[in-house]
Amino acid sequence: MPLYDCMLLAKPHVNKEALMDLVARVSKHVFRRNGVITEMKSFGIVQLGYGIKKLDGRFYKGQLMQMTMMATPNMNKELHYLNKEDRLLRWLLVKHRDTKYGMEFLSEEDSRNEMKKFQRGSIYNIAQEDDDDDDDDDEYDVDKEGKQVDG
């Protein structure tokens, strides 16, 4: 399932309970379609770049929420009931493109190096701390005597 961001811009005077009710309704709709909400962010009240005109006035501020979800590709059509929601100024569904997850994110060589970080042996062995006296010659131009080279 692809990853989507659902941005909800609510009217500034909507109380938190009503906003959470709206978010819960969208979440339940996603769950019913075997989707998963992976992250939820609230940006609070934001100043808009232009006024949004609705039946009850023009709004220059709004409460912005972001819901990240894994859902079916037809989720955009299923969320059109939000157009009739009077608490919302705008809503937008954005699909993440070319997103890789898990071990697909790493190249073959990276994944081998990543797996080497895990110790072999018993989980009850006490891990020894690495010595931090590594030579950091790669960061600086240093000749063999240890003198810094101007460069």
From TrEMBL:
Entry-linked CDD domains = bS6_mito
Which GO biological process annotations does it have? translation
**What GO annotations for molecular function exist for this entry?**
small ribosomal subunit rRNA binding; structural constituent of ribosome
- Residue ranges with Acidic residues bias: 128-142
Q: What Pfam families does the database record attribute to this sequence?
A: Ribosomal_S6
Extract the ranges annotated as region (Disordered): 120-151
Gene Ontology cellular-component terms listed: cytoplasm; ribosome
Family, according to the entry, reads as follows: Belongs to the bacterial ribosomal protein bS6 family.
What protein name is recorded for this chain? Ribosomal protein S6
Q: Which organism is it from?
A: Rubus argutus (Southern blackberry)
